[in-house]
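Practice problem: RNA-directed DNA polymerase
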Amino acid sequence: MLRNKVTFVWEAPQEAAFQKMKKILSSDPVLMILDPGKETTVTADASSYGLEATICQKQADGRRSERNCQEFQDALSRNPQKVPYKREELEAEIDAFIQMITSSLPASSRRLDELRVSQLKDETCQKLTDYVLKGWPSKKEVDTLCAPYWQNRYEISVQDGLLMRGCRIIIPKSHQAEVLNQIHEGHLGITKCRARARRSVYWPGISKVIEKKIKSCTACIQESSNRHQPLIPTSFPERPREVLGLDLFKYKNSWYLLISDYYSRYPEIARLDRLTSAEIINHCKSIFSHHGIPDVVRSDNGSQFDPVKTVEFKDFAKSYGFTHISSSPKFSQSNGLIEAAVKTVKARIKKSRDPYLALMAYRATPLENGFSPSELLMGRRINTTLPVAKTQLQPYSVNKKVLEAKEERRIEGQKTNYDKHHGVRNLDELDPGQNVWITDRRVTGKVLQKTPYPRSYLVQSGRRVCRRNRKHLIPSPDFHPEPETEDDSDVTGYQHSPADADPGCPSLMSSPQSPETYPERASSSTEASPDPYVTRSRRTVRPPERLDF
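Answer key — structure tokens:
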């Protein structure tokens, strides 16, 4: 029926033959109980689809019966024996098993003897031994000292005079601190230390004790780092020039000011003759005169923008009516858009002979949302060296709903990817007066207060106060004041007086730092010119100043 060129037919005769064959195969003449005394033949067949095997036995009348051979074992892996064990043999095997457990413990005989003696002196261990030997009472009648062991009572036993839970030695209270130090002697993490303890020792609450021990270990704290926290994305502005970001960058021995719009990502660059607040303010005024004053200006906490070190930029923000927001030192991520803009602009300048054409090309190139920075800022495409129809240069209105929808998806995607990639976790809030380890400065400090900015704190270290993001602060229970460091390039310049003892609302007195404190971004009298290069013939090399932008 299955051969080629043969019509497949399945009617009443075929169905009757099939049912008859099924009945014969499932009847007694074919399926018999296996008899080990009869002649037996194993027939096996292997193919690419599976393995099939049968056992055939020759019957008295010459017929062969076949039956699948299966052996079912007890669910608890106990193989029933025809001849039962004698009681003496069974007890001997149990004793041998117990001796194997005690002999394989990772401890010397002297150490085990010390623990036996300590257990005999420990009141809790003595009561546990009585319960094990005489039987456990009901939960209400159990002594309060032994109550934590109740849920594990069936695992507790006395082996060779040693109180144990399974294969783990129950450590008396007098030895718990010593054993805890031995568990953490390699300064392993919480998971590894717990795994190490599970192999040999036990007492109630050991898991939490190990966690507390590691979190308070000075050596572990000083060499650890915080997990990344969930990303806090910056919301997309409602209009161009509403939020600006600014930063300084160095290229070929010259410093530049970069200003970028958070709405259009339109970069503007100005060369700085001096790294002073006054120089930066003058360039900001010039750029603001082109497109208007923003509502918010975001920057890092450099000396030119820090209101504690200089009041010039603070007064400038007040007179022009915009809000200035600075990021925590050593945490450029909070002003990520401008940091990314610096990388983009520097890359374009390095690769191009004419940096102005490179900047113009970037301003005319569409972003992820499909619009170029010039379109988002000015509502039109700019004319470049690339041929374009003049009709494409006419002003037009950008579809704001489409733009906002695309930007919302982009921001959500960035947050999702960041959180997934870094395995983020929220860190606990720090309280005023809490001792912390400042990871980037490698000194201890004390939290004074939380700033108005997210995850940002003022921390006192020695006689100085610095501002840090929560990422750089690790709670340190054991506080040891550190001597004041020479390099204060990352502190805020706050000085905390004895009158400011109230941690809830400390009154901080400020004093500007000396110019030597900031070698790269110096105070108002420091210029950006580097030391001249001198050849072996003592000739001073003066590189030419090109492009002057």
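Discussion: Confidence is low (pLDDT under 50) at residues 66-77, 484-489, 493-530. Students who identified this feature from the tokens alone can consider the problem solved.
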